[in-house]
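ARCHIVE CARD
CATEGORY: sequence design from structure
SOURCE FIELD: tokenized fold
FIELD CONTENT:
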């Protein structure tokens, strides 16, 4: 059984937002809302400025608070670890938005259903492709793959680099990890 994981290497990310643009285009996300964004945090004093780029999106929790609070079953998990939303079952009650500790969900103004990152599972990954954000990243800052495949790139990265998971103390077991920026100001 495949289990999908994504890693964002903050050392390679240049904050170009190509991932966000590709996501909006691939998934027809309307203006003003986002499934994926890269946030830049600059600190220091000119000319010694340093910037950290962090990804903001659904982190595909193994223990998903959004799924457990959904009263209609619209939020659900696949066996491969990806959390999806059935728009036909969603009543837009927003319980899942409140339950998500990562602020990754939003009300889609067109469909009137709750929306979020899907790792492009319905439209790309299920056909053997990588998520749109991964496919366009010019610096290969995003690594995606099956953690159960010992030869996958994501497994090689997990074996060789220190990967952290956002808000790990909450116990939601995210499947989106981060290689923290060591070039920017975070650890200096």
């Amino acid at each position: 059984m495949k289990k999908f994981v994504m890693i964002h290497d903050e050392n390679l990310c240049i904050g170009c937002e190509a991932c966000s643009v590709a996501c909006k285009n691939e998934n027809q996300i309307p203006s003003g809302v986002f499934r994926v964004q890269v946030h830049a945090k600059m600190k220091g004093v000119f000319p010694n400025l340093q910037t950290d780029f962090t990804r903001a999106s659904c982190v595909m929790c193994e223990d998903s608070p959004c799924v457990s609070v959904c009263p209609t079953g619209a939020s659900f998990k696949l066996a491969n670890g990806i959390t999806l939303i059935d728009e036909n079952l969603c009543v837009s009650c927003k319980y899942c938005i409140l339950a998500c500790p990562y602020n990754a969900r939003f009300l889609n103004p067109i469909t009137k259903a709750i929306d979020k990152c899907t790792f492009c599972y319905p439209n790309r990954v299920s056909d053997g492709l990588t998520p749109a954000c991964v496919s366009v990243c010019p610096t290969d800052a995003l690594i995606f793959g099956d953690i159960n495949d010992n030869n996958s790139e994501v497994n090689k990265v997990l074996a060789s680099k220190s990967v952290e998971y956002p808000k790990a103390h909450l116990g939601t077991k995210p499947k989106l990890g981060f290689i923290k920026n060591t070039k920017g100001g975070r650890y200096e």
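CARD ANNOTATION: The chain has a mean pLDDT of 94. The first strand starts at residue 4 and ends at 9.
SHELF: design records, drawer C
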